[in-house]
Write a structure and sequence with these properties.
The protein contains five helices and 48 strands. The chain has a 22-stranded antiparallel beta barrel. The chain has a six-stranded mixed sheet with strand order 10-11-17-18-15-16.
């Protein structure tokens, strides 16, 4: 990530107004890769612009006089100089990058003082090197090293994001400018994204509803497109991965081809894994003891096939790219987690550790996204349009329940979701000192269901949002930003009747057989505003930021109208049609100290919900299953993240990160309790040592991570306390110029949980039934670029 940028200035001089003004075109190019650098921010005098995808930007009618030229970009130091138009413009300018926190996790703005001053919300820039070094079975497990970010893991192959203890539809995942829309409302549904196809991620912690709308109430994980290839080049890479704990074998191949204006990209990935091992041979659940054959958590095997391709066109002021992607995955569920009927099952779950028996689920997520950008003097117009189809099937053994006869198939549930999205945004620099964004977001969802097990009804959902946002420079050390947004949403649930008859007794005592209605036709409307106001102040080594924001979230159909047995959780779930939108009020702060060898970052926050929605157990039962009902309560939250990096010398560095969040319900039946899935106090300490090149080995690194997590006694019934734990991970990586010096073979080996400790993750899906985290694991990955 240590690079220089070469900026050749091409002055296209057309003398205007008696030879007193000039038109200027500037191209920004990466020195080592020769790739254009997009999204660089440039200021000449009072005029501002951003480079397009080709690395170009334009200024019209620049006066023939002395000007101050400033160029900034995330990951590089700010460059500032005096130029005289048209005589004294340098041909080459070199921008030097600075050290980053937690290796390739960059605090957006820490390497670029201008961007740091302009952003009052904490934004983490996660680079490709970090993703490759910390890659686990799923994308969210890969990001767990970042303080404030955790994951609800569902087995070894899937997980969903959590930011500061909030997850599900309170965290927005954006891929190529479009919100990823699947069935993220359920605890046992993961994230359908190919992590091999991710090159860069921006993580915003805190209310980000102003730019992204409803659901971004806890933060945003934005997957941004990778860099474009240079003209008339073909590049690519191949990955091979293996892991010992679940016998995983993975491979991914990607290519990029660029002509003059046209280019294309493609990637194919596959993973196949068996049941994973846990450091115990017994699981205790509902007063029963289940023995584990050779420590395998039976029926947790799975596989996935991911394919994506894109085609794009670039000109001086226009860039468009269309991306097609398809993710298909099939995963087994731990058999004993799917109710107690498995005790009488005839399936031999221990026959093989790679077969996928009942219960299992399979999901196919298809996307088409077009991103277009038009660059004009002082304006950038961005249009993102997308279509998504999420097809999810859940299968289990056909067992009769209550009055329901034995089903004829194993398909318990079917969810099919079609989403259409359109985002239009204009960014202007026409007013001196201001960076103004205006935009509109539209989204329509159509959801259909199937299968013999009912949980949520069919529904349609439409949302529309309009926002205005401004960043303003008061002076060179003080920036303010603020904005206002309004969203309107409609949720239309469809009626549903059981497919079998049940006896119903009327007021006269007469018993008839009827198909019970489980959902009704409802047309619910929601509307609210989001607002944000922030300030940031920069001194020589220390910066300070403060942001105050209000955001909201429209209730989900599952929260409004669910009414059925969730056997994955072994409970009966019931929605509340009268739920109101969640409203969140939050204050975020940041103190950032940076010197030559030491970086310190502190991110405190305070958060208040006036009507937080959660699934609350009630003292009623359905066929021995406890009922859970969605309810709302006031919730107060606070916490902080701390990151420290110290560079001992040129070869050795150490870092530490701490995260803490405290939640308390202020009303309702669970008053004074916390909220579900609240993460405990945790810390991670890292060390990295670089070894000088030896023989064929280049850029060799040794690294170690120690994660320490405190005991979590702050729970909400029926959760149970979770003991604290420590996990030590070791790793090494090196490069060998096997094919060429320019593209050496990269080899990485990691040893996770080296002492095979038995630990329980409080935010894990299987923690609810006292299943520990995976045991010792050795992973080897090989990457060859060309």
């Amino acid at each position: 990530m240590y690079r220089n940028i070469t900026i050749p200035f091409l002055l296209l001089c057309s003398v205007l107004f008696c030879q007193e003004t000039y038109n200027i075109k500037i191209k920004v190019i990466d020195k080592y890769s020769s790739l254009p650098v997009s999204e660089a921010h440039v200021t000449i005098g009072n005029q501002q612009a951003v480079t397009n995808s080709e690395g170009d930007f334009y200024f019209d009618n620049i006066k023939a006089q002395k000007h101050r030229l400033t160029i900034t970009h995330v990951g590089y130091q700010t460059y500032t100089t005096e130029i005289i138009i048209p005589t004294s413009v340098a041909d080459f300018i070199y921008l030097e990058p600075k050290e980053s926190l937690l290796d390739e996790v960059v605090i957006s703005g820490d390497n670029d003082k201008k961007l740091l001053q302009k952003k009052s919300l904490s934004t983490l820039q996660v680079e490709k090197e970090f993703l490759e070094e910390n890659r686990e079975n799923s994308l969210m497990q890969t990001l767990k090293k970042i303080p404030g970010v955790s994951a609800i893991s569902i087995g070894s192959g899937q997980s969903k994001p959590v930011i500061r203890g909030l997850g599900f539809n309170r965290v927005v995942v954006v891929e190529n400018g479009i919100k990823h829309e699947a069935q993220q409302w359920a605890t046992d549904h993961g994230l359908e994204i190919d992590q091999y196809n991710v090159e860069q991620i921006e993580i915003t912690k805190g209310a980000a509803s102003l730019l992204y709308g409803s659901d971004a109430i806890a933060g945003v994980i934005a997957i941004t497109p990778g860099k474009l290839p240079a003209k008339n080049t073909l590049t690519g890479e191949a990955h091979l991965t293996t892991r010992s704990n679940n016998d995983l074998i993975g491979a991914s191949v990607g290519i990029k081809k660029r002509y003059t204006n046209w280019y294309y990209k493609a990637r194919l990935s596959h993973q196949n894994y068996g049941d994973y091992r846990v450091p115990t041979d017994k699981i205790y659940y509902e007063n029963y003891v289940f023995d584990l054959h050779k420590n395998y958590l039976r029926n947790t095997a799975g596989f996935n096939y991911d394919i994506s391709s894109s085609i794009g066109y670039i000109s001086d002021n226009f860039h468009t790219e269309t991306t097609f992607s398809n993710v298909y995955a099939k995963n087994g569920f731990f058999a004993n987690a799917h109710g107690l009927e498995v005790r009488t099952s005839r399936i031999d779950y221990d026959a093989s550790n790679r077969d996928i028996d009942l219960p299992y689920h399979k999901v196919n997520h298809f996307k088409v996204i077009n991103n277009s950008k038009i660059t004009l003097p002082n304006h950038t117009l961005t249009i993102d349009a997308g279509y998504q189809n999420n097809h999810r099937e859940e299968h289990s053994e056909a067992v009769p329940h209550g009055y329901m006869p034995t089903p004829e198939s194993s398909q318990e549930r079917l969810f099919v979701k079609n989403t259409y999205s359109l985002n239009v945004q204009d960014q202007t620099y026409a007013i001196s000192g201001h960076k103004i964004k205006t935009g509109i977001n539209l989204e329509y969802q159509n959801n259909t269901i199937g299968g013999w097990g009912f949980l949520i009804p069919e529904y349609n959902r439409f949302t529309a949002g309009l926002f205005l946002y401004d960043q303003y420079e008061i002076h060179k050390n003080l920036y303010v930003e603020g904005g206002l947004r309004y969203d309107y949403g409609i949720v239309n649930t469809k009626p549903y009747y059981e497919w079998f008859d049940s006896p119903v007794t009327d007021s006269n005592g007469v018993v008839t057989q009827q198909r019970l209605q489980r959902a009704s036709d409802e047309n619910l409307k929601f509307g609210s505003y989001s607002a944000s106001l922030g300030i940031s102040y920069l001194q020589k080594k220390t910066s300070y930021k403060l942001n105050i924001g209000k955001s909201f979230r429209i209730p989900l159909a599952s929260e409004l109208a669910s009414d059925g047995v969730n056997y994955h959780m072994y409970r009966y779930e019931e929605g509340s049609i009268n739920l109101k939108s969640e409203n969140s009020y939050q204050i975020d702060g940041e103190i950032n100290f940076s010197s030559k060898n030491l970086d310190i970052l502190i991110n405190p926050f305070v958060n208040y919900f006036d009507n937080y929605i959660y699934l609350n157990p009630i003292p009623e039962y359905y066929e021995t299953l406890q009922r859970y009902k969605y309810t709302q309560s006031e919730v107060f939250r606070y916490g902080s993240e701390l990151m420290i990096t110290y560079k001992v010398n040129t070869n050795f560095s150490v870092s530490g990160a701490l995260e803490y969040v405290k939640s308390k319900q202020l009303s309702g039946s669970k008053k004074n309790f916390t909220i579900p899935f609240s993460p405990p106090l945790s810390a991670i300490f890292s060390a990295k040592y670089n070894i000088k090149s030896q023989s064929f080995f280049r850029d060799t690194q040794l690294f170690a991570d120690l994660r320490m997590t405190a005991k979590q006694n702050d729970i909400v019934p029926p959760e149970r306390p979770t003991d604290g734990y420590s996990l030590l991970h070791l790793g090494a990586q090196t490069q060998i110029p096997l094919i060429s010096e320019k593209h050496p073979l990269k080899i990485q080996c990691k040893l996770n949980n080296i002492f095979d400790n038995k630990v329980y993750d409080h935010t894990s899906f299987y923690r609810l039934i006292q299943v520990p985290e995976p045991g010792r694991n050795i992973s080897i990955s090989i990457t060859q670029k060309f």
